[in-house]
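Sat 14:20. Reprocessing the chain from the morning session after the first attempt stalled halfway. Input below, unchanged.
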Amino acid sequence: MNGSCFEDANLLNICRESIDYQGIVRHINDGVLILREGNIVFTNGAFCEIVGTDLSGLMGKPLADLVIPEDRERVVRHCVDKLYTPELSDRIEFSISRSAEDAIVEMKLTVIDCGGAPAILAAITDITERRKTRIELQRVKDRLESILHAMNDVVVSLSPTDHSILAINPAAEALYGIPRRAFNAGATQLMHFVHPEDREQVRNFYNSMEDDEFGEMQYRIISSNGRIKWVHDEAHLVYCTARSVRRIDHVIRDITDQKEALDALKRSEEKYRDFFQSTKDMAYSVTPDGSFLDINEAGIQMLGFATREEALAANLKDFYEDMSERAGLLAQINEQGFVADRHVRFRLRDGRAIEVAITARAKTDDSGYLVSYEGIVHNITQAMEDQRNRVLRNAAGGMCHYLNTHLMHIVNAKEGIMEEVESLEAIARDTLPESAAQTWEAACSALRSYGQGLEQAYTKITAVTKAFNSAFLTYREEAYLDRAILDIFNSCLGDPSECTAPPETKKGTGADS
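Finished this time. Tokens:
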């Protein structure tokens, strides 16, 4: 078929005198072609641009040669069937092969009479970009739906008029405890699950969205199994046109665990603060270099500050009597994270030295960096002194028992010797010659003198042990000084009968008490 077929196409009922149909066909953006027996007998420039071929290369060419192999049979069959089946769809999509990129086209078919034979008038629209956009939109939609399905948060779209559910993701099943289809059916509303005590506030929150456009709220819900849960609800308006509200989208997150954890933390902090203020031990928090961040009233009094402000302006390291003790304590904390009952000595503001037991830990941030040290300081000065006194009393008791045991042996031996001397003295007077008797008498006199010396020594030592017993072997916890022992011995240097325990010292009057 040559170019004269266009005149054959003019057998269509068109009014060439009133409308320049050929001019329209030549200048429209859609491709126009006439197929007779599957061959192209007419086309316009727009179709040439679509397929990327000039007009001479298209005339008389089968349309099937332009279609990609995957679509070729389907297109040919559709064109043939359309000639004899008027009710068949007048639209078909397929791809045309091009050198750079295949073109996706939509062809609209109309059966016409061309030179007395049936032919097909086709309008070809290049929908490649439209299809790419549609595919990309579908890809984005699929990805979005995949994300929504994978989310743990409930995403729901509500009608702006009656708050009915337009769409909801599967996470709603876990949060509310009912199948998703129950929401999609429209019979179940979110407000049904809101805790009765919060329902009015939530209803006001929903109603305010058209004015506020965005909002968030925390409230309670009751799931289908009766469990009370806390949720965080973020809502915002979605517009269809400039000011036409289309829907209200909500993102509802289950914050029950976080809420319970925060409540537990709050209770713990309240207990800690109550303990911090009520404990009789010093409780403190300091920076890594020792500057006070916080200190309780007991600590203020222990260290000798007049006010809390004065304490917070000070540094804990200034109270260590031996800085090596501080270095050892911090080394243990930094290595193990804590230290328990470590003994150090503090020098207070008034100059007194006390012995304390420190239990402390290192506090770090989320990145593991040291933020501060927190600890409890217990004054063990009196306890340590009492312990030393108990050791001293036990030692004194043991010594006294040892001395008394051996003193009894000495006394018994002395008395036995004196008895034997008296017996031998009587015999000597009757049996010994005068000269020998005088010698024996002198020996007996010396033995008696030695016995008296033993008696005096026994008396003095016994006085000392009694004084020790009186001073140390007592159930009372007393603060003793080193001079207490010296006082006992000094009192025994004179008359043993005057050897007594030193006067009692009132508790707490020691230099470091």
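The longest strand covers residues 103-114.
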